[in-house]
Amino acid sequence: MTTTATPVPSKKPSLNKFVLFLMPVLLLAGVIALFVFTRGAGLNVTPAVPIESVQFERTILRPGQIELRLRNTSPQEIRIAQININEATWPYTISPGPRIPRLGTAVILLHYPWVQGEAYEITAFSSNSIPFNTSIPVANTTPSATAGTLWSFTLIGIYVGIIPVALGMFWLPALKSLGPRAMTFLMSATVGLLVYLGIDATTEALDVGGKLGGAFQGTGIVGIGIIGTFLLLDVVGRQQMSIGRSETEQRMTLAMMIALGIGLHNLGEGLAIGAAYAVGAATLGTFLVVGFIIQNITEGLGIIVPISKDKPAIGSLVLLGLMGGGPAIVGAWVGGLVYSQPLSVLFLAIGAGAVFQVAYEIGRQMIWKEMAKRQVPVTVFVGVLTGMLTLYVTGVAIK
Amino acid sequence: MKKSLHDSSRATEQLISRRKLFKAGLGSASLVGAAVIGASLDRSREAYAKEHHSPPGLGHHLMPAVVGEVDHARNGFNPTGILTDFDTGTVTKLPNGQALREYTIVAVNKVIEIVPGLEYMAWTYNGRIPGPTIRVRQGDRVRIKFFNVGDHEHSIHFHGIHPGSMDGVFDAASGVVQPGGDYTYEFEAEPYGVHLYHCHTTPLAKHISKGLYGAFIIDPKESRPRADREFVMVMSGYDVDFDGKNDFYVVNGIPFHYDHDKNPIRLKVGELVRIYLVNILEFDPINSFHLHANFFHYYPTGTGLKASEFTDTIALMQGQRGILEFRYKYPGRYMFHAHKTEFAELGWTGVFQVEA
């Protein structure tokens, strides 16, 4: 502080200021210390029964072995005491040890002659007799990262991501013949499509997030993922647009943004499919793959709508296709080989935020402009609804 | 008996069904469980090898078992001791020449380590499960001083023939004791046989399943033929997560205690073995006893001196009991267990180690 009488805030940081800002923090430390050393400062903070929770993060099956990876999501350390599997008490080893610190992980190994394709129910009892259940709906050897499995997951990504998106882009020549009203309709349909995907991904993220251990705050992950992705893409989009290039370039940028958004969404999709395929549950039936191709083909259409009147280079089109469909491959790898629920929630939320932002971007840049030029509210309404209904109807095949 | 598989696979299914794709005809086979992995596993396998010895049983043959031994000293009882721990009470002669057998039994809450590392807040008679094996002779006067130091009302309900005021069911006048209170049960011991006693306050299933039970043997006036070995075996279970279903099944308090790699019961070829077997298992309707590589003479409720059956397996409902007699012809290791596989694999398994 200066010695002048006028209370002009000093511009440069001073020690005094620092101490003033630190004051509440120091007081807080004091209160915490008081609370800890007096064991609750008058409050009875010891629950009658310890609150315990455990998250089973992965189940890995090898011939004659079942490995469970679990995380302690309780407020304190827990100790694993016994394992029962399908109504039998079974010997096990636990690494690094039976005591798991808060948010720590442990790996339980059972030498158990499991049978291919059968179901197993496993209960881990804590030392306080609290049971934690997990199940193996369909026992199957968990794939490890070999060239063969990587190629399988790559193929899955190609089938559900790259191929449908690329097929959709072949609508490009046809779009060139369409009038402005039809383009507005398609644009609106793309928005409807994206909004539908976003709602779907959000629901899914909240669903999985709600099952995470309390400490993970699944809903918080969803919020951060959606809002963060939305705002980040908004910043990127505005920076790209503001560089002051031709309208053609701006439209290409918009197409890129759409491809990026859809790509992030497909990442989450690939993750789920990869995870399913890895446990053998997904004999990804022909029916299912065809269903995905039909549904995702509309994503390819959405990507090229903004540039349908331009003459994009083949290279740009290939890039768009890879951006939109390629992440499904990465998702399948991650899902198949290192699936984790918190990560899955984050990916789903990022995908949701991305498609919401892209829907907003198309609306702002294309549809609003068009609406300013002519009366098309009914076209927009019918378009958006058509987009949503398209996904609803094609969704029947894969749900 | 647990039946939660379906519930939890449904939960699992929801957990992973992004786009619910698996519902597409994959049915409940859906998905991924807590899911999947594989990549960085080799590292963890090495870690195991370094940090852990193989659990018992892994070297030769996979069998259900618990790893390690519970702390019997801390539990205050050892099932090996319970086998032959017949409490004949403090005996005095009444003026009429009748023998008076006096006992003190205390109902007390106690944390019991039932399987290694797992602690259960039990209700016990004299701090052990099962409670003391009371052994008297037909016609004896039995006097049991009962103290309740638990935090719920308890009683002792004996199976046998006695006045209603000694039945331990309805109120203070019939032997229901409030926390801090006491009561003296007194009656003539009849009829001879193997019986049981247990708490009979409500909710009854809770009071029994938490551990308030024991064997009550009345020997006939003329003793049974001398046996080389006599054992008591009380069959029960533990519902450690309070869902009304047993998580572990047991004979004499500690699951798997008499298992081959733990504390098998040692016998000699040709010895006459007599087992006083009692079933007080709560929640499940039927328990059973199966003897390997042998047959036994069975005396239902022990109320006769002639065996009713020569068999290797018997079924008992809750409260049913009987006496088994057998000799082993060959040396070897022989299992005895519930012939309900689930019960056997959740703890009700033991082994006779027979030497020449």
Characterise the protein shown here:
The complex is a heterodimer of chains A (399) and B (356). Chain A has helices at 15-37, 147-169, 172-175, 180-210, 218-241, 247-278, 286-304, 314-325, 327-338, 341-373, 377-395; strands at 54-62, 65-72, 78-85, 93-95, 99-100, 105-111, 120-126, 131-136. With 399 residues, chain A is an alpha+beta fold. Chain A folds into two domains: 54-136, Immunoglobulin-like, CATH 2.60.40.10; 147-398. In chain A, helix 2 runs antiparallel to helix 6 (247-278), helix 5 (218-241) packs across helix 10 and helix 6 runs antiparallel to helix 10 (341-373). Chain B is mainly beta and 356 residues long. Chain B has two domains: 72-219, Immunoglobulin-like (Sandwich), CATH 2.60.40.420; 229-355, Immunoglobulin-like, CATH 2.60.40. Chain B has helices at 5-16, 41-51, 72-75, 79-84, 204-209, 341-345, and strands spanning 86-87, 90-93, 99-115, 118-125, 133-137, 141-148, 157-158, 182-188, 193-198, 213-219, 229-238, 248-251, 265-268, 273-279, 286-291, 296-300, 309-311, 313-317, 321-326, 332-337, 349-355. Chain B has a six-stranded mixed sheet with strand order 12-11-14-19-16-17. The model of chain B is unreliable at 3-60 (pLDDT under 50). At the A-B interface, strand 1, strand 2, strand 3, strand 6 and strand 7 of A face helix 1, helix 2 and strand 4 of B.
The computed structural class of chain B is: mainly beta
Query: Which consecutive residue ranges of chain A, at least 5 long each, have pLDDT under 50?
Result: none
Annotated CATH architecture of the largest domain in chain B: Sandwich
Largest interface: A-B, 85 and 67 residues
Q: What is the number of helices of chain B? A: 6
Report the end-to-end length of chain A measured between terminal Cα atoms.
67 Å
Mean pLDDT level of chain A: 83
- How many helical elements of chain A? 11
